[in-house]
Specification:
This protein is mainly beta. 0% of the residues lie in helices and 37% in strands. The chain is built from no helices and 9 strands. The termini are far apart.
Amino acid sequence: AVKNRGTSAVAAGSVTRLTAGTTTLNGTTPAVPAGETVQVPVSGTWKATDGGATLTATADATNTVTETNEDNNTFARSIVVGRGAAVPYTEYEAENGKYTGTLLTADAKRTFGHTNF
């Protein structure tokens, strides 16, 4: 999203740029009324790979809009790309269970009921 923090409307046509790692994607910003926020569609793709990446969004990337503050056009965020969190799990081998007539004890934490038909 791009917000116009100024007191004058901005005509459509400026470039909003998203840089993801070494990939650059551009979008055309629609008209932005003073004090309003607009969504900017950005076309293209970026392939995430394991590790980290920095995403940088730049409004008015080609400096076509006259502004009183040119220093507030960029937002950057580092992200981590990976296969997900390491979820703890317990491996259980059926051979390690003991049948005691009505209960199956897998380990100290797991005892399963049995109806013993």
